[in-house]
UniProtKB/TrEMBL annotation:
<protein>
    <submittedName>
        <fullName>DUF2007 domain-containing protein</fullName>
    </submittedName>
</protein>
<dbReference type="InterPro" id="IPR011322">
    <property type="entry name" value="N-reg_PII-like_a/b"/>
</dbReference>
Length: 155
């Protein structure tokens, strides 16, 4: 397989979506990246291994930094950072095991109906699946966590 003299393949993937995720990761780290042989695999993905998979390529000069980012990804550094950020934002809600309003421990989280409707609408018109926010609600008194937070701020 011939390569452009400016680009070097730093990883090969059996499926294009994994390749796209890591291309996006490299670009988020300001490393230009592109995929090669992607469309051949999309045409006949069952043959991906026989066709050589999808190549993730970066400029020759950026290969050391790109390999470093991929290594951090494989070690789980990005997953750990995402988990820490998620915990920082939603941790208090997830850890609330009792309703501060009535003291009940019967708390449930569920998808909101308007959220599900908008998700269906987005799916039908754009063909994209969007994750929906969860509503955390006390089953005993019916207060949602947002209402409880507002109650706490009033007192
Ligand atoms: Zn309650």
């Amino acid at each position: 397989m011939t390569q452009s003299k400016d680009l070097i393949t730093i990883a090969t993937f059996l499926n294009p979506w994994d390749a796209h995720i890591l291309r996006g990761l490299l670009e988020s780290e300001d490393i230009p990246a592109c995929l090669a042989s992607e469309h051949v695999v999309w045409l006949n993905w069952q043959w991906s291994m026989a066709l050589g998979g999808v190549d993730l390529r970066v400029p020759y000069a950026a290969q050391d930094r790109a390999k470093e980012v991929l290594e951090q990804y494989m070690q789980g550094d990005y997953a750990a950072a995402l988990q820490a950020a998620t915990d920082a934002e939603f941790g208090a809600a997830e850890q609330a095991d009792a309703c501060p309003h009535c003291g009940s421990r019967d708390i449930s989280s569920s998808n909101t109906n308007p959220g599900m409707l908008s998700a269906l609408g987005i799916y039908f018109f754009l063909g994209v699946i969007v994750p929906q926010p969860k509503a955390i609600k006390c089953r005993a008194c019916g207060h949602s966590l947002k209402e409880l937070a507002e109650d706490a701020s009033k007192s």
